[in-house]
Amino acid sequence: MKRNYANKKSESAYHRYVKDLSAFPFSFTYGGVRYDGFKRSEMLPVCRYGCGGDNVITNVFAFDADGLCVTLHYVFYKSHGASEWFVSFENKGAADSKIIENCECSVEFEGAGPVLSGIYGDHDMWYEPYSFDLSEGDVHFTSDHGRATHINFPYFDLSYGDGGVMLAIGWAGTWSADFEKTENGVRYRANSVNGLRTYLKPGEMIRTASFIFAPYENRDGFYRTNFWRSFFTECIMPKADASGKALQPFSTCCLASDTCRPNSDGSISEGYDTWKRSLDKMIEEDVKVDFRWLDAGWYQRPDLGSAEPYVPGKDWWDTVGTWVPDPAKWPGDTLLQSTEYARQNGMKTLMWFEPERISDPNNMVKNFGYDKDWAIIREGVGAVSNNIGIRECLDYTTERICKTLRENKVEMYREDNNSDPAVLWAYLDEKSGENRRGITECKFIQGHYEMWDRIIACTLGFGGCGFVDSCASGGGRNDIESMKRGVPLLRSDFDRTATSIRLSMTSSFCKWIPFCGANTKEKLSQLAPTGNSDPYIWRASYLPALNVDSQFYADPDQDFSVLRNGLNEWKKVNPYLLKEFYVLTPYHKIDDTTGFTAYAYYDPETEKGVLLAFRQENCADTSLMVNLPFADRKYTLTDEDTKEEYETDGSLTLRFDQPRTAKLLWIK
Fold first, then answer.
1. Exposed / middle / buried, residue 70 (Cβ in 10 Å: 0-12, 13-18, 19+)
2. CATH 2.60.40.1180 spans which residues of the chain?
3. What pLDDT does residue 264 have?
4. What are residue 385's DSSP bridge partners?
5. How far apart are alpha carbons 215 and 1 in whole angstroms?
6. CATH class of 8-236
7. Residue 316 pLDDT
8. Do 248 and 123 contact (CB within 8 A), yes or no?
């Protein structure tokens, strides 16, 4: 039976906020006057509508103050009792507005025993979980570099009293969050665009982050995890395609390591003369994936130079910005030929772009009609930012990307971002001399969301995907506003190495963002072209996005049976990967190989699932007892390898003859 996550507590909070906007948990200062909430007499209802069988209710309120229109956009998801909102500011007058500053979400949650739980972000912290007893002190998080989910992670689980609330900040730039102990509970304060202090010119509009509140009435950890996963998959995740069907697991494969040419991060070695033999081998061996992955380096150099086209480390990093296929690698319509051939054989294509960085502005001006005023350049900072916050730059960049996607019928757009842009945003604010701190970031992030919306409309227009692949040097852009439009095919670049990293990240990250992926090889380094692949590694890689790493043509010793078995087994696991998730062993850090990792996916509607258990390479124990928290009756578990059956009403002891062994058991 499907879980019912709606609760009276959250619905009453929704009605309270909408009825009495003066108590709304948002404050800002305009022209030196502080506004706490919104006076009902000032806020006029703009519209109210429902969709999804009235499951989603949207309210929009606005008021004008001296030509400034302040609009509250409020959405309520009845199925999960979750609220989401953001505030926009638009200058509809003929003169500059007054100063807008101190924009903050602020609300007190009352209840005993407050505990804050969550995970850190990618890079340095690698999704390590945390738990803070807020009765012992305040907790502060900030993200100042411009890639929102590196180091810190804007998703929080605040439990107090007999329940709690899930919180999220949806903004792909800078943000901060504070949890402060109060006499009766905890005050939560959050904002986006750190240090925002700006006026608006006539016609300009900026917005805050989206803020999500999802109250729950059960402090059990498994309940909280699956309440959030259910909300995320049903209410946040983008749809698969134009039909509106739910996004389902899929597999991908990059052919960069199968060209017999040197390559580095991405597919710089791939060209018109390499792809077909790889795809033909995949077809011959019955190991086709859902998406052929064309990564970095496929585009023409801005200087139109004739340098050696396959130079590892140079040919992708130093040549971004044109978004035109390199005629040396893809002459004529050969790129379209490759995507058509893939489609004819049941495979789609995804393609890498990095629109926020530009490598050679001078030659982009000379050869591609670029305007150098669109480039944010600062001496001493290696990267040059392509300022998509400027309308003309946004249109130029988006239209070039869409033209390439459309002409070559590339179904999925993959985006990367390999620099921290916040330092350049702040530099441009200061350089302008307009005393408008944060305005560049506001326009940039708003432009970025619009660009993704337009790209998705483009791919949907020719039968492609209703989502993008979100990447920013791995897991740098997984804020919840971005996750409405994208999924992280690689939750971390670091997840392409040791299996212990993969298991560690799965047990933490998948509680928060269910749709994600990893690599199917274990490598000595992230960019190594080759590595190990066996059933242990494959089972650790079973995620909604299965990123197959293989040399179909270039490796004469390729064991296709391992690849074939892995793909087929993953397909059988697929129906459960977006269902309930239960981590059954304690968290271990990414370099800890001395214990067990076990987790289960379970579908309460069919009462079936799958249990995956791993004895790591340096684990001395030979047996592991697991408890199935969802078991309220007798269950049968069947070992995929031995076909042995176990009857249990919740507890089960698994025995492992050897270290570095993975078990897969079907639950019914």
1. buried
2. 580-667
3. 61
4. 357, 376
5. 22
6. mainly beta
7. 86
8. no
In this predicted model, what pLDDT tens digit does every residue of 167-195 receive, in sequence order? 999 999 999 999 999 999 999 999 999 99
CB atoms within 10 A of CB 311: 17
Helix (H, G, I), strand (E, B) or coil at 336: helix
Only one residue has tokens 């025993």, namely: 113
302 close to 321: Cβ distance less than 8 angstroms: yes
Tens digits of residue pLDDT in 46-89: 888 777 666 888 888 888 878 899 999 999 999 999 999 999 99
The ranges of the chain with pLDDT < 70 are 1, 40-41, 52-54, 264-267, 306-307, 312-313, 527
| C-alpha closest to that of 488 among 477, 499, 480 | 477
Burial of 568 (0-12, 13-18, 19+ CB in 10 A): exposed
Query: CATH 3.20.20.70 region(s) of the chain?
Result: 250-489
Strands 250-254 and 545-548: parallel
Q: How far is CA 199 from CA 202, 218, 271, 455, 619, in A?
A: 10, 44, 49, 30, 60
Cβ–Cβ < 8 Å for 522, 501: no
The CA distance from 573 to 575, in Å, is: 6
In the chain, residues under CATH classification 2.70.98.60 are: 8-236
With CA atoms as reference, report the closest residue to 419 among 353, 495, 356. 356
Residue 576 CB burial class (10 angstroms; 0-12, 13-18, ≥19) = buried
Q: Are 481 and 170 in contact (CB under 8 A)?
A: yes
User: Strands (DSSP E) along 175-307, which ranges?
Assistant: 175-181, 185-192, 197-198, 205-207, 210-216, 250-254, 291-294
- Fold classification of 250-489 is TIM Barrel (3.20.20)
Backbone angles phi, psi at 535, to 5 degrees: -55, -35
* Range list of β-strands (E), 520-650: 545-548, 580-583, 596-603, 608-615, 623-627, 635-639, 645-648
Residues 580-667, CATH architecture: Sandwich (2.60)
Contact 540, 502 (CB under 8 A): yes
pLDDT of residue 478: 98
Q: Under 8 Å CB-to-CB from 9, ≥6 apart: which residues?
A: 81, 163, 215, 217
